[in-house]
Design a protein that fits this description.
Layout (H helix, E strand, L loop, with lengths): L4 E8 L3 H13 L6 E4 L29 H10 L28 H6 L2 E4 L4 E5 L4 E4 L4 E9 L3 E3 L15 E3 L3 H13 L4 E5 L3 H12 L3 E6 L11 H13 L3 E4 L3 E6 L5 E6 L4 E3 L2 E4 L3 E3 L10 E2 L2 E3 L11 E3 L4 E5 L4 E4 L3 H19 L12 E6 L2 E7 L4 E7 L8 E8 L2 E8 L3 H13 L6 H7 L1 H5 L2
Parallel strand pairs: 1-2, 1-6, 2-3, 6-19, 8-15, 9-10, 9-15, 10-11, 18-20
Antiparallel strand pairs: 4-5, 5-6, 7-16, 12-13, 13-14, 17-18, 20-21, 22-23, 23-26, 24-25, 25-26
Length: about 450
C-alpha cells in the first residue's frame, strides 16, 4: 500500500482551471509542499483550445523561412486561435500562455513548491473525511479541495450507434486524442473526413482538416450550425463561407451507424436519412458532460453541475468547484448558470483561490461578476460574442460569405435593453466596445435605428 500523502490544498483535475488556480496560489503566496495537482493526463496543464487549431496542423516548422520562435510568439499572442503554416506543439501552449502569461513548464511547479501528480486518476472522494483515493490505491488527504474535473466528451457509443467503436473515429478533448488524430491524418493524407456535429468542435476541426487538404463533410441534425449561439442569419454566413472553401454540409440528419473495412477502420458513415458518406476519418463533436461522479450524493447539484456561491464554495465546507463543473450565480442576469468555456475556467479558478486565501486572512473579496464570453477562429475568420443571446435580434454589416473582408454582427435586445453582442472580423477596440455594451446594457429606442447604426452604436458609447 502506497504511503498516504497530505496537502493543505489539492486540485483534482489537470486542465486549464487547474493551471490558472496554481498560478493564483503562487501569486497569493504558497509554502513548498502545500499544494498538489492530481491529473489523469501525463503532461502539466495546457491551453486546451490549441488542440483544435494549430496542434493538428501537419505542416512542419521548416517550411517557412521565419524562425520557430517568431512563429510561436506570434501564435501565442493571438491566444492560439489562428491558423498558421506552422504546427503548434508542447511546450508552446502550457498554461498560462493563452492569456499572455508565463508558460508553466514542469520546472515551474517545482520552483513554486507545487507537487504535480500526473497520470493519476482519482476514483473515490470522501469529502466528509477529506480523503481522495487513486485507481492504484494511493490515498491523498487535504484541508481544502478544488474540484476542477472538467468535462468528458459525449460519445456515439453512449447512444448505441452501430459501429461507433470502429478505428479512426475520433473525439477531441485531451492531448492523447489530438495525437491519435494527427497520426491518422498523416496516414490518410488527402482522404475523406466526416465531421459529426455543427458546434465549436465541428466548425473548428472542419476548418483544420480542410487546411490539411482533406475532403471534408460536416453532418449535423439542426437546421443551422452553432444553434446554441448563432441565429439563422449568423449561421448562414459561416455555412456559405465553409461551402465556398469546399466543405460539404449535410444538415437535418445524424450518423446512425458506421461500416468498416477489413482492418476494422471506418469506411462509411450511414446517415439516418438513408444516405451514406465515404470516410477515412470521422471526428465526433456532439457535446460534453461535466465530470461530477466523484462527488455524487455528497455535494448539492444544480443544472448538471456542482452548485456554488459567488466564490465557488460548494455546499460542503472547504470544497470549491471551478470551471465546467461549477453552477454559479451569474450576477449580471440574477440566475444560476453553468458555463463550459476556457475564459470562465481561467477566471473561476482565480476567483476561487482569491476567496480561499482571503478567508484564511479574515478578509473578503468581491463576488464573481462574469460577463459571458465566447470566441473562435477558423480559416481567416474571427468572431467574439459577449452577454446573453435571448430576445429580439438585429443584424448589421457585411455578411456576404464571398466578401474579401467580411465584417458583420448582431445585437440581442430584451425588454428594451441591449444584452448581447456578436461581431465577426472586429478589431481589438471594436471587440472591447461590444463587450462594454453587453455589460452596461444600454436602452434601445428603436430596432430600425439600431440596425442602421450597426457597430457604431457600440463604438460611440
Amino acid at each position: 500500500m502506497a504511503e498516504e500523502k497530505s496537502f493543505k490544498y489539492v486540485i483534482v483535475g489537470g486542465g486549464v482551471a487547474a493551471g490558472y488556480a496554481a498560478r493564483e496560489f503562487s501569486k497569493q503566496g504558497l509554502k513548498p509542499g502545500e499544494l498538489a495537482i492530481i491529473s489523469r493526463e501525463q503532461v502539466p496543464p495546457y491551453e486546451r483550445p490549441a488542440l483544435s487549431k494549430g496542434y493538428i496542423n501537419l505542416e512542419s516548422n521548416n517550411k517557412r523561412s521565419i524562425g520557430f520562435s517568431f512563429v510561436l510568439a506570434r501564435f501565442l499572442t493571438i491566444l492560439f486561435f489562428s491558423w498558421y503554416t506552422d504546427k503548434a506543439t508542447l511546450p508552446g501552449f502550457y498554461v498560462c500562455a493563452g492569456s499572455g502569461g508565463e508558460k508553466q513548464f514542469p520546472q515551474w511547479y517545482k520552483e513554486n513548491g507545487i507537487e504535480l501528480i500526473l497520470d493519476t486518476e482519482i476514483v473515490k472522494a470522501d469529502l466528509a473525511a477529506k480523503t481522495l483515493v487513486s485507481g492504484t490505491g494511493q490515498v491523498f488527504k487535504y484541508q481544502t479541495l478544488l474540484a476542477a474535473t472538467g468535462s468528458s466528451v459525449t460519445r456515439l457509443s453512449d447512444f448505441g450507434v452501430q459501429g461507433a467503436d470502429a478505428k479512426n473515429i475520433f473525439y477531441l478533448r485531451e492531448l492523447d486524442d489530438a495525437d491519435e488524430l494527427v497520426t491518422a491524418m498523416d496516414v490518410k493524407k488527402n482522404g475523406k473526413a466526416v465531421v459529426v456535429g455543427g458546434g465549436y468542435i465541428g466548425l473548428e476541426l472542419s476548418s483544420a482538416l480542410k487546411v490539411n487538404n482533406l475532403e471534408v463533410t460536416m453532418v449535423y441534425p439542426e437546421p443551422w450550425c452553432m444553434p446554441r449561439l448563432f441565429t439563422a442569419g449568423i449561421a448562414s454566413f459561416y455555412e456559405g463561407y465553409y461551402a465556398n472553401k469546399g466543405i460539404n454540409i449535410v444538415k437535418g440528419t445524424v450518423a446512425a451507424g458506421f461500416s468498416t473495412n477489413s482492418n476494422g477502420e471506418v469506411a462509411e458513415v450511414k446517415l439516418k436519412d438513408g444516405r451514406t458518406l465515404k470516410a477515412d476519418i470521422v471526428i465526433v463533436g456532439v457535446g460534453a458532460r461535466p465530470i461530477i461522479s466523484l462527488f455524487k450524493g455528497q455535494v448539492e447539484e444544480e443544472k448538471g453541475g456542482l452548485k456554488t456561491d459567488a466564490f465557488f464554495k460548494t455546499s460542503v465546507p472547504d470544497v470549491y468547484a471551478i470551471g465546467d463543473i461549477a453552477t454559479f450565480p451569474m450576477k449580471l442576469y440574477n440566475e444560476m448558470r453553468r458555463v463550459e468555456h476556457v475564459d470562465h475556467a481561467r477566471k473561476s479558478a482565480e476567483q476561487a483561490v482569491k476567496a480561499i486565501k482571503a478567508a484564511e486572512e479574515g478578509k473578503s473579496i468581491p463576488e464573481y461578476d462574469y460577463l459571458p464570453y465566447f470566441y473562435s477562429r477558423a480559416f481567416d475568420l474571427s468572431w467574439q460574442f459577449y452577454g446573453d443571446n435571448v430576445g429580439e435580434t438585429v443584424m448589421f454589416g457585411d455578411n456576404d460569405p464571398k466578401s474579401p473582408k467580411p465584417k458583420f454582427g448582431s445585437y440581442w435586445i430584451k425588454e428594451g435593453k441591449l444584452i448581447g453582442a456578436f461581431l465577426e472580423g472586429g478589431t481589438p477596440e471594436e471587440n472591447k466596445a461590444i463587450a462594454k455594451v453587453a455589460r452596461t446594457q444600454p436602452s434601445v429606442e428603436s430596432l430600425n435605428v439600431l440596425s442602421k447604426e450597426g457597430l457604431s452604436f457600440a463604438t460611440k458609447i
